[in-house]
């Protein structure tokens, strides 16, 4: 019995999706819930699971095709199994055959073939091509993808780890055109969507950026004092981003104009504070959202950020986890950048850019001291607010971070302590 695979609607405002990669081929045998295709929308990148076990009968559209939601993109011929009977309906058109002792050896052989096919279909076309070009035995590589699937990064890491190997350089990607003086690289669906959104934002919002310098010395001391304990007791890797997210969420409560959107009829202030955290992927960015960020303490925010960043990179986010953001933070300091001028994520009215924390000499009480310093840059929509509003908001964040209370982390917490960030 044929079962359709459709382009799902990944959110109320999503009208279309792009097929970025097929994980199976026509004729492959698959299991229910096995990832069969990767899709990309303006909200999320994710893997679509098989609705039933069976054989891939038809793939209707190629990779790179953008289609409306609810479009049938593939068809699976169901494979039913019941005690004493094996039915492989569709691929060969045969009727179910009773399993008897005489057929035991044949059934065993078929299962071996199926297991071999199962291993083979776990590899994407790109992975198989890289393995062939680099003469790599994929069985020797431990995969980091869904269900242990081997990824391109796994192959590159494996090649780099070989004795005497230099940095592995992958061959030109499919679709690249190499000329004498240049290389043409086609746009990936995610890059095309990102480009469209950024151009729309710059054309729509009146972008202005203001920058504040923040003394992070107390935050650095708190982190150094408590990061090992939090790793041991909470299983989180404590970075600077949760501190900044907490200070920002609390500042948004005091400056609600920053937590708003623009409409031609007026300004819409949001009653909830949902902070989006920009996460860098191989082919672009995605912004998962921490809901009600102002109601969470440092530990919970650290857990949430670690969780959503990890699942964003493994394409495990749910559609609702990239929706309803009211303010965004982008941490380019992770790559060593000191400050930048980020582009507003519409329909929001501002975005906070976080620079690297670096030690440098500064003047403190008319004396030169070595302090851990950081730049915060705020791009805001000048249609909604003026520079004074933006500067007041950044000043509130700066004061909270610079007054952070340096205290030891407690193993047991009956309620959110005031010690997580000084006086709030």
Describe this structure in words.
Residues 2-77 form the Lipoyl-binding domain. It comes from Candidatus Brocadia fulgida. InterPro entries: 2-oxoA_DH_lipoyl-BS, 2-oxoacid_DH_actylTfrase, 2-oxoacid_DH_E2_comp, Biotin_lipoyl, CAT-like_dom_sf, E3-bd_dom_sf, PSBD, Single_hybrid_motif. Belongs to the 2-oxoacid dehydrogenase family. It is an enzyme of class 2 (transferase). The chain folds into three domains: 2-121, RNA polymerase II/Efflux pump adaptor protein, barrel-sandwich hybrid domain (OB fold (Dihydrolipoamide Acetyltransferase, E2P), Beta Barrel); 122-186, E3-binding domain (Dihydrolipoamide Transferase), CATH 4.10.320; 190-402, Chloramphenicol acetyltransferase-like domain (Chloramphenicol Acetyltransferase). It has 424 residues and is an alpha+beta fold. The protein contains eight helices and 24 strands. The strands form seven sheets. Strands 14, 17, 20, 21, 22, 23 and 24 form a seven-stranded mixed beta sheet that branches. The chain has a four-stranded antiparallel beta sheet with strand order 1-8-6-3. Strands 5-4-2-7 form a four-stranded antiparallel beta sheet, with no helix packed on it. The protein starts with a strand and ends in a 22-residue tail after the last helix. Helices cover 28% and strands 26% of the residues. The chain is globular, with a radius of gyration of 26 Å. Helix 6 packs across helix 7 (298-313) and helix 6 packs across helix 8.
């Amino acid at each position: 019995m044929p079962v359709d695979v459709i382009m799902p609607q990944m959110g109320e405002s999503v009208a279309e999706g792009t097929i970025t990669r097929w994980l199976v081929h026509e004729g492959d045998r698959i299991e229910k819930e096995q990832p069969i295709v990767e899709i990309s929308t303006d909200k999320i990148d994710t893997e679509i699971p098989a609705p039933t076990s069976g054989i891939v009968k038809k793939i209707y559209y190629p990779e790179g095709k953008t289609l409306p939601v609810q479009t049938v993109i593939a068809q699976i011929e169901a494979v039913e199994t019941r005690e004493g009977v094996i039915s492989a309906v569709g691929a060969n058109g045969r009727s179910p055959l009773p399993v008897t002792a005489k057929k035991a050896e044949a059934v065993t052989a078929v299962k071996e073939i199926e297991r071999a096919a199962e291993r083979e279909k776990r590899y994407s076309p790109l992975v198989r091509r890289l393995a062939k070009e680099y003469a790599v035995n994929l069985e020797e590589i431990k995969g980091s993808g869904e269900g242990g699937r081997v990824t391109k990064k796994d192959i590159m890491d494996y090649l780099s780890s070989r004795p005497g190997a230099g940095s592995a350089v992958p061959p030109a990607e499919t679709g690249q055109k190499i000329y004498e003086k240049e290389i043409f690289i086609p746009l990936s669906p995610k890059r095309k969507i990102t480009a469209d959104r950024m151009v729309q934002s710059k054309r729509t919002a009146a972008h202005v950026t203001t920058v504040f310098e923040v003394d992070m010395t107390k935050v650095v001391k708190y982190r150094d004092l408590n990061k090992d304990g939090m790793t041991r007791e909470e299983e989180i890797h404590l970075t600077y981003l949760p501190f900044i997210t907490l200070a920002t969420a609390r500042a948004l409560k005091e400056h609600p104009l920053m937590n708003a959107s623009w409409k031609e009829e007026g300004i819409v202030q949001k009653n909830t504070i949902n902070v989006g955290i920009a996460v860098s992927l191989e082919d672009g960015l995605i912004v998962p959202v921490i809901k009600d960020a102002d109601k969470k303490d440092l530990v919970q925010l650290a857990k949430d950020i670690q969780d959503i960043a990890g699942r964003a990179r493994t394409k495990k986010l749910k559609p609702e986890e990239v929706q309803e953001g009211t303010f965004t933070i982008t941490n380019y300091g992770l790559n060593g950048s000191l400050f930048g001028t980020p582009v507003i994520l519409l329909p929001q009215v501002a975005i906070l850019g976080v620079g690297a924390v670096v030690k440098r000499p500064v003047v403190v009480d008319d004396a030169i001291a070595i302090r851990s310093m950081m730049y915060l840059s705020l791009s805001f929509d000048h249609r909604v607010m003026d520079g004074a509003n933006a500067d007041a908001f950044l000043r509130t964040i700066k004061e909270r971070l610079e007054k952070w209370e340096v205290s030891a982390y407690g193993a047991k917490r009956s309620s959110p302590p005031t010690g997580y960030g000084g006086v709030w």
